[in-house]
Amino acid sequence: MTDDPARWPTGRLLSHVARDLERQWNAHLEGWQLNHASLPVLLALLGNDHSQRELAVASGVTEQTMSRTLERLERLGYVSRGPDAGDARRRVVRLTDAGRAAALAAASPEVGDRIAHSKITPEQIAQLRAILLSMVDAERSGADGLA
After folding, report:
1. Which pTM was predicted?
2. Is the dihedral of CA 120, 124, 126, 132 positive or negative?
3. Collapsing DSSP states into helix, strand and coil, what is residue 68?
4. Are the beta carbons of 9 and 2 closer than 8 angstroms?
5. What is the spatial distance between Cα 73 and Cα 77, in angstroms, rounded to a whole number?
6. HSE-up (13 A, CA, CB side) for residue 59
7. R_g (Cα) of the chain, nearest Å
8. CATH code of the domain occupying 9-107
9. What is the spatial distance between Cα 85 and Cα 139, in angstroms, rounded to a whole number?
10. What is the pLDDT of residues 26-68, one digit of tens each?
11. How far apart are CA 139 and CA 133, in angstroms?
């Protein structure tokens, strides 16, 4: 392998840039003691309560991993867990007022865009967004890119 990025495979370039953006995003989220894994949980709960299983599936992680994330969010006072009012056998995760405030403040689209756009031109941003949207659409449609 070479240290010259111009010679790196595209996947390595994407991974490198994604890790750098994730580090910057996590530094922003640290103001609320959140990270890239916990913020989406809070955002999912903005709409309504969910079970741990539902949150795990939506986040693409195991229930065990989600359990650890929820334990941390609960310690921070951002979520609470308890019985479902409509089904006492079911436990749900609820967003607290502090969690709602943290989610809305931390998820600022302006901050995310400032981080992602800081090193490229507006034209490059438009091109990159179009490419990334194509990749997301292909992934969602089940195309794995392997022929």
Report:
1. 0.76
2. negative
3. helix
4. no
5. 6
6. 26
7. 18
8. 1.10.10.10
9. 37
10. 999 999 999 988 999 999 999 899 999 999 999 999 999 999 9
11. 10
